[in-house]
Design brief:
The complex is a heterodimer. Chain A has nine helices and no strands. The radius of gyration of chain A is 21 Å and the shape is globular. By secondary structure, chain A is mainly α. Chain A has two domains: 86 residues, RNA polymerase sigma factor, region 2, helix turn helix motif (Rna Polymerase Sigma Factor, Chain: A); 106 residues, Winged helix-like DNA-binding domain superfamily/Winged helix DNA-binding domain (Arc Repressor Mutant, subunit A), CATH 1.10.10. The longest helix of chain A has 22 residues. Chain B has an eight-stranded antiparallel beta barrel with strand order 9-10-11-12-13-15-16-17. A three-stranded mixed β-sheet of chain B has the order 1-7-6, with helices on one face. In chain B, strands 5-4-8 form a three-stranded mixed β-sheet, with no helix packed on it. The chains are: A mainly alpha, B alpha+beta. Chains A and B meet through helix 2, helix 3, helix 5, helix 6 and helix 8 of A and helix 1, helix 2, strand 13 and strand 14 of B. Chain B: Keywords: Membrane, Transmembrane, Transmembrane helix.
Chain lengths: 210, 427
């Protein structure tokens, strides 16, 4: 999308024109969802966070400075909305002290390239606090002090959560070969477990009925 | 921002997740949910407006109630005193005269209550039917407020006195003590006063100086005639502790779940019939409903949403005593509650998956005057200080409650004990 076209779209959104809003939403859907999926535990949460983020975008678009890149602004709103979501769920967090976690050695890590869906599934399996810190540090590039300020935790806790996250991810990568092929962080209905007993009953039942 | 270090794990994820756009397909359902949120936006402004109107109405009600309260007190004073203005003026004029004419002033009467009230002037004029008029005014309201039970206004009319004699009316609300004694005798001496006061069967100290009355609550009959007494204090403040099992439901009570509530309430009696109540109660409110029964627009509509919320409920109610006989009384009350949602735990289930999502929201939602209260109270007096309270109540939301925006209704029966902690000592 060209810059002029984007400006027209933004102007239409400021006027609350629904078609322009939908166009903007559709255009940046993948980008926004990509951020939210990293911070959320599953697709449901991600979609909810993303829509809350877009709601903020549409509400405050008149304050957007046209001289700055829109995508970065949008991305920041999505990240902030994800952090808000994290704060609202603080009771479920693991906030370990620095003493409880140590840096993970990764010299033995083989160079490998994993699929997007697999990486997303791994990151979504992390506890919320670890996931948030890992995102902010490893992907967004914040320092521990900045993360501490953003999340209301100490930089020590941030470090601890990062190390724990890395440790868990390292184990997941090591076990990556055992991940089912169709498992995906973007899937609508991830199958958690299938009881073989039930499968047998269904199979036998089908046989009898037919 | 930091300098990127060279952690391999970080790099794997940073690189692998960088091109998310190419892996995510657009879903119309997400836009549908977004559109609902956008459509809902004007309605939210309406809610704010509605809340403002409600808050304004409450303020107006309170002002009216307070105004009525003060006017009511003045009216009472008028009832006790047929010509308050005239008499007040008379008292003032006489006071002026007493200053200019030393011979007309005989003595002062001093009333010693706990407030240290004392008579300003006591005057007699031989040539007038009104022979004595004593007016005692209390000190500041602050002083009186600390001991309302000892406030009294009493008037004693001598049998032959003319009706225009009476008392000057001050602000009798707990603060001023006004005594007036009228007689038609042409001589006014200490005995007249002492008889009057002694007949009131109170502690009287008669001496050459001012007559002292050590107890201010007087009810008596002088010569079988009128004794007018007002200001026999009733308790103004009452503290009550209430606990209740209640039922919480979204929209209706069909799928209601039982919760509990307990709290402390403070009541202030603004008149014989009216009182205001406020306080705080802690409530555990479990409730459940289908996803579409909530106002919140989820990106993916859950099949069911079960909640367990811990709420601080701060009510402001006005109560009217409908019936009171003997030890029993019934009141009806209404008002508004503010909900402070301390924690909200939600469990979502979905139609096409066994996936259960849990979510906790803490200290995020406050609904100031967001809930209407309706209650009926039955009170049974145990003694002068304590009473038993049984209070069925209904709480109806004026706004969407909590993160899930539920139309959360509550009904229950509170049971507790009330304590009238500034009970008067009526004889």
């Amino acid at each position: 999308m060209g810059e002029a076209e984007l400006q027209n779209l933004i102007a239409g959104c400021i006027k609350q024109q629904r078609l322009d809003q939908k166009m903007l939403y559709k255009t940046f859907y993948g980008f926004a969802m990509g951020i939210c999926l990293r911070y959320a535990g599953n697709r449901y949460e991600a979609a909810e966070i993303m829509n809350q983020g877009f709601f903020k975008v549409f509400s405050h678009l008149d304050k957007f400075d046209n001289g700055k890149p829109f995508k970065a602004w949008l991305g920041r709103i999505m990240m902030n909305t994800s952090i808000d979501y994290y704060r609202n769920n603080l009771k479920m967090m693991y906030n370990d002290d620095i003493d409880e976690a140590a840096e993970v050695a990764n010299d033995d890590m083989p160079d490998r390239k994993l699929r997007y869906d697999d990486l997303l599934a791994m990151i979504q399996q992390l506890p919320h606090a670890y996931r948030t810190v890992f995102n902010l540090y490893a992907i967004e590039g914040y320092t521990h002090d900045e993360i501490g300020e953003l999340l209301g935790i100490t930089s020590g806790t941030s470090k601890s959560n990062l190390f724990k996250a890395r440790d868990k991810l390292k184990k997941m990568i090591a076990d990556a070969d055992n991940l089912p092929g169709q498992y995906s962080g973007t899937a609508y209905t991830p199958i958690v477990a299938i009881s073989t007993a039930n499968l047998k009953v269904t199979f036998l039942g089908n046989g009898i009925i037919r | 921002m930091k300098k990127q270090d060279s952690n391999k794990i970080d790099k794997i994820f940073s690189d692998g997740l960088s091109d998310a756009e190419n892996h995510i397909a657009f879903h119309d359902a997400d836009w549908d949910a977004m559109e609902k949120m956008l459509d809902e936006r004007p309605a939210r402004r309406g809610v704010v407006r509605r809340l403002t109107i409600i808050a304004g109405s409450i303020a107006a009600m309170l002002i009216l109630a307070l105004g009525w309260f003060y006017l009511g007190n003045n009216d009472k004073g008028t009832k006790n005193n047929k010509k308050p203005d005239l008499i007040t003026k008379t008292g003032q004029q006489q006071a002026t005269r007493s200053k200019t004419d030393d011979t007309t002033t005989n003595r002062g009467v001093q009333l010693q209550g706990s407030k240290g009230l004392e008579t300003d002037n006591a005057r007699m004029k031989n040539e007038e039917p009104l022979l004595a008029e004593t007016a005692a005014k209390g000190k500041s309201k602050k002083q009186a407020g600390s001991n309302v039970n000892k406030d009294a206004i009493y008037t004693a009319n001598h049998p032959k006195s003319k009706p225009e004699t009476g008392i000057s009316n001050g602000d009798k609300k707990d603060s001023d003590l006004i005594a007036s004694a009228n007689t038609n005798t042409n001589t006014r001496d200490r005995n007249a006063d002492s008889n009057l006061i002694a007949s009131a069967n109170n502690k009287v100290d008669i001496s050459d100086g001012p007559v002292k009355i050590n107890q201010t609550t007087l009810i008596n009959d002088i010569g079988g005639r009128l004794i007018c007494l007002t200001g026999v204090s009733k308790p103004r403040f009452a503290l009550s502790i209430l606990a209740a099992p209640d039922v919480n439901g979204v929209g209706s009570f069909n799928n209601g779940r039982v919760g509990t509530s307990a709290g402390v309430m403070l009541s202030y009696r603004i008149s014989n019939k009216w009182s205001v109540t406020t306080g705080v109660s802690y409530a555990v409110k479990p409730y459940a409903a289908n996803g579409d029964q909530y106002k919140r627009q989820w990106a993916y509509m859950p099949a069911t949403v079960a909640a367990n919320c811990n709420v601080l409920d701060v009510p402001l109610n006005i109560n009217y005593q409908i019936y009171s006989k003997g030890k029993n009384s019934f009141s009806a009350g209404t008002g508004l509650s503010s909900y402070f949602m301390l924690s909200e735990k939600y469990t979502y289930t979905y139609a096409n998956t066994t996936d259960v999502r849990k979510m906790t929201v803490t200290n995020q939602n406050q609904h100031i005057f967001g809930v209407a209260n309706i209650n009926v109270s039955y009170q049974r007096q145990i003694n002068s200080k304590f009473n038993l309270i049984v209070q069925p109540y209904l709480k109806l939301p004026l706004t969407e409650i909590g993160f899930s925006q539920a139309d959360l209704k509550t009904t229950g029966v509170a049971v507790g004990v009330g304590w009238n902690f500034n009970t008067g000592k009526p004889k």
